[in-house]
Specification:
Shape: elongated
Order of helices and strands: HEEHEEEEHHHHHHHHH
Distance between the termini: 74 Å
Strand order of the largest sheet: 1-2-3-6
Radius of gyration: 31 Å
Structural class: alpha/beta
Number of helices: 11
Length: about 280
């Protein structure tokens, strides 16, 4: 319910937001429930976070008159920061807002337990923690990523779940280009070991690399073609000014020439006595 959330927060001076979601769910009893999930991804504590949780909550309640649960997932790296309430008191008037908050860093010592769990969110939490732990250590991150991919296959989950989780792991645990290339054979081997040919994983990496190489090559070709076209037009103008109208065959010859040839011809104009002398390659 992103539009509903935006409607009550668009004019609030609440600091920088990364991801906030308002979701309508069905409870096991069949009743409708609203859940406001705040996900903070940041490198340091933020003083106004608890206030923002409170602001979102009371505005949504006031606007829609619906009970809702505000939940916080803290993915920062500050061990001592663990906001879970907001409140104030004045002249005997007391207000207190408590909200459940999960600190992913608190699970750092339980990574092995997370990796043994059959819960997909446990695996994602472990991937997040290992991503933080291996920052600036590409070889260690590579080893951790392969370990997580092996766990994906070992769980025996359905194909779509494995592919969805692979996308999350790949997004979190980015690697340098040389290690991205190396991971081709490793994933292929894992697929063969488990006899589960999820070639989408390989194709995704190949497509990513192919697209990047294609973009770079296209930009180079585009720049080169642009320069050649400009050089050809300049040469045509110089020839016309010095020798008069240019025959169509010579115009086509100039427009199809490469940059090196165009520069050679341009240099000859200064001393040449005819157009043929400029364009003569003998």
């Amino acid at each position: 319910m992103d539009k509903e959330l935006q409607q009550v927060t668009k004019d609030a001076e609440l600091g920088r937001r990364y991801v906030d979601k308002l979701v309508r769910v069905r409870r096991l009893s069949g009743d409708e429930g609203w859940v406001c999930v705040h996900i903070e991804v940041q490198g340091e504590a933020e003083d106004v976070f608890a206030r923002r949780m409170f602001t979102y909550h009371y505005r949504l309640f006031d606007q829609y008159d619906k009970p809702l649960a505000s939940l916080a997932v803290l993915a920062d790296t500050s061990p001592g920061w663990h906001p879970d309430s907001f409140g104030y008191e004045l002249y005997g008037c007391r207000m207190r807002f408590d909200f459940p908050a999960v600190k992913l860093l608190d699970w750092e010592s339980e990574i092995d337990q997370l990796l043994e769990s059959d819960n997909a969110f446990a695996l994602v939490t472990a991937a997040h923690l290992l991503t933080k732990k291996t920052q600036g250590k590409p070889e260690e991150r590579y080893a951790a990523k392969i370990r997580l991919i092996r766990i994906l296959f070992a769980r025996g989950w359905d194909r779509q779940r494995i592919l969805d989780l692979f996308k999350v792991l790949d997004w979190l645990m980015s690697l340098p280009e040389d290690l991205e290339s190396k991971i081709f054979s490793d994933i292929r081997q894992i697929e063969e070991e488990y006899q589960m040919p999820y070639v989408t994983s390989i194709e995704r990496i190949a497509l990513k690399k192919g697209m990047q190489e294609g973009i770079e090559k296209g930009m180079q070709q585009g720049m080169q073609q642009g320069m050649q076209k400009g050089e050809a037009q300049l040469l045509l103008r110089q020839l016309a000014l010095k020798f008069g109208p240019i025959p169509e065959d010579k115009q086509r010859l100039i427009e199809s020439a490469d940059s090196q040839k165009l520069r050679q011809w341009s240099e000859r104009i200064l001393t040449a006595q005819s157009m043929d002398e400029v364009l003569n390659d003998s």
